[in-house]
Amino acid sequence: MALLPLRRLIFLLCFFSALPRRCRFLAAEAAPTLVASLPGFDGPLPFRLETGYVTVDEQNGAELFYYFIESEGDPRSDPVIVWITGGDRCSVLSALLFEIGPLKLVGEPYNGTIPRLRYHPYAWTKVASILFVDSPVGAGFSFSRDPRGYDVGEISSSLQLKKFLTKWFTEHPDCLSNPFYVGGDSSGGKIVPFLAQKISEDIEAGVRPLINLKGYLVGNPATGEYNIDYGSRVPYLHGMGIISDQLYELIMEHCQGEDYSNPKNALCAQVLDRSNQLWNEISHPHILYKKCVYASSGPNDGSTERKILKEEVGVLKHPPPRPSMGCQGSKDEWVRCHERDLPYSLDIKSTIKYHHNMTLKGYRALVYSGDHDSVIPFLGTQSWVRSLNFPIVDEWRAWHLDGQSAGFTITYRNNLTFATVKNGGHTAPEFEPERCLAMFARWVSHESL
User: Fold this and answer.
1) Catalytic, out of 202, 369, 373, 374
2) Active-site residue 373, yes or no?
3) Are 150 and 164 in contact (CB under 8 A)?
């Protein structure tokens, strides 16, 4: 079955800006747009969608684009979440369409017409309002008028997000009393605790508007520490039967104290290379799935495969990341992530201290992992959570959905919860949306998983 080519997804992006057949950047600080219907979706949208831009760098004219979807429950009291997606300058549509948003692309043979959309019954907007932001500048629809505005890093883009939130809440004062959480996954998990700490510092300093920050959540999160995030692959791959006992023992023998990203020991480099060869035989985001290019959503019903195949990706022309300001009509290609197109400094070397600081301050934290993710295996995440050395409040146990175990969880003092999602991959909601909604809904409602 042929899936929707990536170059056609730009049609959908234009629809989200409520400008049918016209895709353009809005003027600075333009009024937000309410979107009541979308081509490809039958009938009016069953939720309130607002889109808009917020200027975060006046000198260079850099603006971040957002989609704000109100809770389908009680938006007056339900939490507000800002969501930061992972990847290299990936559009936040990755999260909205493939993970936790209320819309999904219909997986069907592509016939050249407008892609069809369907309602996603396990969206997290069932219980929370979500602010999806294209960050950093250059991701999705976010842009800079001066090319120098694209030269950002993890720290500077986090501070731009903080500025974004200050401006956004100023324009949306009705949301200030709602509980607020910072959320994200994969490499976005590096931004989340740092951003949350910066918001908490503003709160302590009395900076207005006073955001009602309650905590944060990270899924399949990177920390910036290579041997934690990726060094755990070796024991994970061994435990899952992908590398042998003999190879595992050789790695343990020759790689003690080595930096797995740059081993100086020749024997260590040799056995790690063999381990990587075996790892490359499987699908990294979900070890049970077919090995395809990591470019489209995971199937939830088994009817489609997770793929934009290499022959399809090979024909893409990869347009420049800074479209002209006068762009009109549909682009012939949209790229989900701009990998290495633009400068981006990886200057958050480790997030663990921010996790420690935030939880010690009493903010709530949920850390979760798909247990079939080999990109950032749960073993590494579990290890750094343990390294915080908080006393255990609720011992390791199964959590359940419909009378069956849906994963396993442990709760520590200082409102820190770690959970696995059974059969979840990278990222967990792509593969197990029902379980992830149940987990999130319980946690955000202060219920036990």
Assistant:
1) 373
2) yes
3) no
